[in-house]
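I need you to check the entry underneath: sequence plus fold tokens. Let me know what the token row says about the fold.

>
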Amino acid sequence: MGSGQSAPQRPERPSGESDGDINPRARLNICPPSTDRDLTRRAVFEGHGCTIFAYPSTGGVVIKNDADLVDMEFLGLDRFSPCEKRYDDDVQETMFSRQVRKAGGKWWPDMDRYVNVTVGAKQPIAEERVERYFGWPNQDARSENSSEDAKPKETGVYVLEYDVDDPEEIETARLRMAISMAEKVGLMKRMGAKFYADPRDYEGLKDAYDRCE
């Protein structure tokens, strides 16, 4: 975007991987979108919610699987009729991509990698096995206030993180019962979420912020 800043470092693809590598523990209940590799679509309803796509200017695609009511509100998307296509403006799209990351979206180098890992045709690398859930205190208050001066400042983030191969993974399905960010934050606290006063201190969110923020 002409800023002169270098692009954030991204996880490299696994080396030595062949087409015969199969992930026996693939989460087959998450059906990837159709494999037409449309890089303009914004949302697809499937599985247990809505899959959201965003396309940062640094490359790749950010995907939020199974977005629920709270996620859609956080992203400013209509729950029943979200926009169908990405922003034409790269700056707007990059800003939206960061918001999707803050909603728990995961960065993928391309759609092929996302589809192959999701269906179990490829083994995931360590970063691809991590699932993250974020709770943002005061988010409901920020949404309800119309005046910028009246909006409380961001006061940190609660984070739940686990490896999908962990047999003792957190019962994150409970989070889908929340109907507001406040409820989600309260539940995450009871589930042992870790709090970061500055979200940029959490490694998994650093690329969701501009270096000048």
User: Anything to note?
Assistant: Residues 79 and 185 are 20 Å apart (CA to CA). Residues 1-32, 142-152 have pLDDT under 50 and may be disordered.
